[in-house]
């Protein structure tokens, strides 16, 4: 048991400050995913020596799910979150949405498809309104 405690100490407990909400985890927990922002040395860009923590001006509610991915290896889609905001957070932290768990993936795809359809509709409505404004009235 003492060896496990010593090993954890070498891994290093780190503090992640996400817009004022502080999260703690082990460095090796993050390093399991070296192709992501938190799992790579890129995270050092966000380190503040004066507070001895990493600061991210991001959404702490969504970050909770991102950190749980590092801890458990399972990425879940929180149904109550805006799909665009969720996608932006995943992209920022370098996590691909294709690894969302089977339990959430269909819901995620459906919400993404609905959002895309809404954006396309809004785009064409906007273009039609602009065109209508430019048409000379007789």
UniProtKB/TrEMBL annotation:
Keyword Transmembrane: yes
Domain BTB: 12-111
Domain of life: Eukaryota
Key words, A-Z: Ion channel, Ion transport, Membrane, Transmembrane, Transmembrane helix, Transport
Family matches, as InterPro entries: BTB/POZ_dom (IPR000210), K_chnl_volt-dep_Kv3 (IPR003974), SKP1/BTB/POZ_sf (IPR011333), T1-type_BTB (IPR003131), VG_K_chnl (IPR028325)
CDD domains associated with the record: BTB_POZ_KCND2 (cd18418)
Cellular location(s): Membrane
GO biological-process terms attached to the record: action potential; protein homooligomerization
A Pfam family per the record: BTB_2
Lineage of producing organism: Eukaryota, Metazoa, Chordata, Craniata, Vertebrata
Listed name of the protein: BTB domain-containing protein
Topology of this chain in the membrane: Multi-pass membrane protein
Provenance organism: Sinocyclocheilus rhinocerous
